[in-house]
Amino acid sequence: MAITALLGGLIAQFFIGTTRTISDSSRRLAVMQSAQRIGSAWSRDVQNVEPSGVNSAQCPRQAASSLPTPEQTLVSFSWGLSSSGDQTSRTATWATAGFGTDMVLIRRYCQKDVMISEDVLATGIAAHGTINGLAIVHGPSGAMSNDFCPLVPAVGGISARCTISVDGAFKYSLQIARRVPDYSGADSPFSPPAPTISGVVSRNGFLVVSWTPPFMPPSVPAITSYRIFAYSSASGVTPATYPGGHPNAGQPISQTYGGGATLSDLIGLVNGTAYYLRIQAQNDTGWGALSDPAFGPGTPTGTPPEAPTITSVVGGDASATVNWTAHANNGGSPITSWNLYAIPVSGATIGPISITPGTVSSGVIPGLTNWMKYKVQVAGVNALGEGILSSQSSWFIAHPPAIFVRSTGEDNASCGTEATPCRQIEYGLSRATAAGMAFVGVAGGSYSSFNLRADTSVRGGFSDDFLDTADRNAAVTTVTSSYRAAATADVGVYGPSAGLSNVALLDLTILRADASATSGRSSIGVYINASAVNTQLTRVKLVGGVGWQATGVFVGAGANVTITASEIRSGTAAGAGSSAYGIRAIGATATVTGSQISASAGIAGTPATAFGTRSVDGNTGGNGSNGCSSSGCSSSGGGAG
After folding, report:
1. Global confidence as pTM
2. 118: pLDDT strictly greater than 90
């Protein structure tokens, strides 16, 4: 019995000891596996990180993360960075999550701000009651230190090595040397030669740096990037660092630019501080040599404001309304006013037009010429003077309130702007009358016949964007005639009622129909009804037309019309007793200047006198044609060819 008890005790002790041995072995194996994971990830991140990539960005915790809290960020490594925020940039953030015996060491990996992976590298790293992860995982200075990658001035201020130490059950430490570029020479024989900094312009909080690309031997791949470093002395050895408050505070100043750049801004600097600059180029084989010696000093300083951005320009009646957004950099002192300039397509610039106070972002330029094409620029003014001018706006035209028409437009209750024009001239005129506007502008294209409206001008020949170009005739606006019962004629432009006043037609081509199929029907280009006052035709051209009375312009009794720089032709008379008139003024006045007026022979065969001069009395020309030369004529009471 005693022997049995003794054996039982020995067996129990054997199993307890064996269990402890197996437990310790499992624990050591788990620690070893965690150490391998830490070492592999640490080595990869340290050797990939860019010179200014330590703690320059973070891979943030996702809301859906299942890891314990709280989380303590330790250090971040970034690479693939660029000044433009390249979507290919990568960041690995190391952190602890949880507290006490639940604390774990994690590595989170992101592309830009999108998390790709979240890995637990080690578990059970802390003892009961431990809250701050830096008490367990820290830099070479000991617990609670986050100097994982301390700066070393001898290598350009970039940490030569990064060290991670894990205390507690691990007692683990790993130091990895960074792949720091040799700034005195290139990464490889096929890296680019050093560029040359050619100039620096001081601005408020930054320097504008220009450089000359190096000569590239045929065997060296093309440059893909440039990188500028700032130093605190002319030796170009001791790096200048970003100031407090900057996202990269304490880190060496370096910024990367595209391979096609030869001028860019080095930002995030301190006014009054002297900086010395060196630049290097990169290609597919690596970074090339740094320029030597350092260029400088360049010292940022207060300046007039940086250039604003024009957001919109709207042409008005002999004016323009300009809207802009101020630059974030006011030069170091408040903007007190704005200067506006208008640049015409020809002639002297108008301005500056001063707009106050400096807090506004909109202003009006007066004194423009209607139907003239302009661009505008804006500059801010502070205590140091006028700042950099904005980029020029797009072209626009100054114009009175108007309705615009284009053959691709749409007739509806809101049409008529340059952006949303109406489709037909007739509809545009009705919109103009309803809105109290006196002008309809028409783009080149084909349109239907329309009725004149009192106190309204119709001007064709505009480009599709309604910019008033020098060669207006390049955009031809054609109006096709249609039958008007009151005139017993096919008419292109019709004055439907007597007494119309202040009507103008400009830059139109009127295409008349063949009305000969209907006996007694006439073909008339422009029909001005009786007693119409102050009707003007300028640069109007009449084409075609066949009818019993083939008439270019008909002017009713008591009306007066002025025709300038136009080409008025009768068309062809057809049918017994038919007539052809360039201009037919019955008891009316037609004053013609600088125009060509002609008529075809009548049906009786009276010869035409195209471009001749003929006095008008009564209703002559009934069986023939009368002409009016380009030197001008004034007709009253009869028919003028």
Report:
1. 0.57
2. yes
